[in-house]
Structures are given as structure tokens and as C-alpha cells.
């Protein structure tokens, strides 16, 4: 989800949706947990287009208290992060990449690196949000247990992009539907009640309709200088034409490539680790447990000055 919202579903279908309001992006559950992701949009300046200004996620499981995280856009491409309605204070991660900060509590690990803030819920769901050009952009990774169980703007996740545009009433739009039809589809996922963000402070127009790419591309009077550097990238073209801002269009094109890289990273995070879930140890006895990972560049570390555990070997063993 990036730019003047260009959305890639969980199955890889791409579309543009410039709805104005609070929207359901993903809702899913399995036997042990549930996950909810919502997004809030605002009008992009005076343009007939919108962009995300906030995301909120809620994770519930049988073994954890409910966890709610909010990413809120602030000036200068800053993200204000809240956990269960409390501001998150990040600390320098000495074991991580240069400049990376971390917040770790029961059920959620968050990292911040510049204008990118990621949250991993219970080692299962990862949401990564970046602020650029005064817009929030996000990427989402879900575990396989949620397949065939999702609904919202990110589609019905079953490996088939042709049935992603499923509405709350169960009906599905066919592939190749027009921008106008997809806009009305997206509006069916607007949240009419109370969202995870609470009540909006701004008054939204009740009949906002965005400008569509077909209208923009057919207007020959538009300055070609806006699109000359887009190299045919439709995301760049739309954002530059809709806003009259060539830089925003270029940022969108760059973000699309970044988004693809983020998805590659998210598919590897958290890494695959093999080893026992529970360690049984007895006072006065040494217990050796072997943990391994086939994921590239995985590092095992001990935190909080732990003296009862020691790491051994090139592929470290955790000894107690």
C-alpha cells in the first residue's frame, strides 16, 4: 500500500483506490488467534486523490492479552507509534543494524530505522510502515494459517488473484474491472462504526469522488514535464498527474520498488528456527540444547546480561 493508494493484495493483484475515510485492510482469524489491520486516509492537498495518514493493527491470541499498535503520520516524515494507547519509546539496538532502534514487550517486537517502523506480533504477523513525501506506506506479511480466511481491501488470500475483489456481501468483482467499479468496491470496506483510531477530528465530505487515471491520461493539456521521467510507470504517472507534483510521482515509483524489496524481507522475517519449544532444566545440572536456522544471516544472541546461559559454536548451541 503506497502512494495515492496503490494496493497490492495478498495474492498479488494491483489496483488504485482513492477512498476517503477509515477502511478495513485485513481481517482474519484461525483457531488460536485473530488479526485486524485498518487504514485511515486524508485528501492529498487540494488534489482529487487521497493517501494514508495512519495504520492500526490489533492482534489477539489465546496466550496473550490483546495488542493494538498505531502508526500515525507526523510532520517531517515522522511516525508516532502507540502501543495499547501509550506512546512507544524506542531504545538503541546494539545488536542490530546501525541506526536501528528497538522496543520489545510481551507479544510484540518493534524496530525503527529512520522513517521505517516495523512490528512483529507473536512471531507470526509483520507490518512495516514507511513515511515518505508526507504519506504513510505499508507492507503486510501473514502466516499461512490465515490463508482462505482473509477479508478487506487486501483481498481474499487463497493463491488466486482473480477472486481477490470480494465484497462484504460475498460477491466478487471479475478481473479487469474498471477503476470506477473498483472504487465502489473499495468503499464497501469503509468502517462506518468506531475504528481502532477512534473518532476523526476532521470533517470529511460525504460525496468525495477521486479523479481516475482514464480522465488524467486523456487530458492532453496536462504538462508532459510531469510524466517525462516516469518511464511508463503507471503508479508514478497517476500520482504526478493527480497531484501536479512530479517529485511525488517519482517517490511513488521508487516506493513500488522498495515495496517489492520489503515483501522479500518480510517473507524471510521472522527467520525459520528449529529447536525445542520448551527447555527443562534442573538445579546443578548442565543442559545443552541445539537451535539451528537455514535462513541466511541469522545471528543468535543473549540479551539482558544473562549469566545462566552460554552460546557455543559456529552454529551456536544454547547451554544452561
From TrEMBL:
**Where is it mostly found?**
membrane
Name the keywords, alphabetized.
Disulfide bond, Membrane, Transmembrane, Transmembrane helix
Is the keyword Disulfide bond in the record?
yes
Coiled-coil parts of chain: none
Q: Which Pfam families match?
A: C8-3_MUC4, VWD
Q: Localized where?
A: Membrane
Task: Kindly give the InterPro entries that the UniProt entry links to this protein.
Answer: C8-3_MUC4, Epithelial_Barrier/Signaling, VWF_type-D
Sequence ranges assigned to domain VWFD in this UniProt record: 1-197
Keyword Transmembrane helix attached? yes
Protein name per the record = Mucin-4-like
Q: Which organism is it from?
A: Pontoporia blainvillei
